[in-house]
Amino acid sequence: MSIMLTCGSGGCEATLIDEVALQRAGRHRTEWAWKEKRKYGEYPSQKRQNEYFAAAYTRLTQISLLKGTRHMAKKKDEPSVKTTHETRYLKCLLTEDEIRIAGDTLARNLDELEVLDDKLKEIKADFKAQIEAKEAAAKVQRNLVRNKYDYRNVPCTLVLNYTGGTAICTRDDTEAIVDDRPMTMAEKQMDLGFDGDEQTE
Question: What is the DSSP annotation of 23-66?
């Protein structure tokens, strides 16, 4: 469709032009004129051709408008529906087989969980023992650093003086006196020796 604007002294007038109907009316006029020539031996006058063209164009335009109206009415009556497909995460009832499989899986997972828990307890106990051992060793070393001495087994010499009734113990490595005390009754009752070199344990 197009609009043809015609202007004159009285103003302008707009006319709606149907190009399809216009072309079909032209073809109909040509066919009609050719038939008239075959029938009467000559073409119809230009005036008659124009009248035929106008009548054909009017008829075709009316038919086109009628079809358009019917098409629009049909479109209007048709429901406006659009169908699409999608996936959603929804609640679904389990079958008996699915429930049985879920129960078996649950029991197996619980058994494996118990085994892992026992292993974890064993690992914790082992690490706890290792930590306690390291703490004890660190405590010993800390005391050594702080006190700057340690207790060890050192060879010593004990001299029993029966005349003076004393017992003197000295270190063999430094000859320092470790103990200087009176003799005990047991030591006084010991047999006298003349070696002067008896080792007492």
Answer: HHHHHHHHHHHHHHHHHHSSPPPHHHHHHHHHHHHHHHHHHHHH
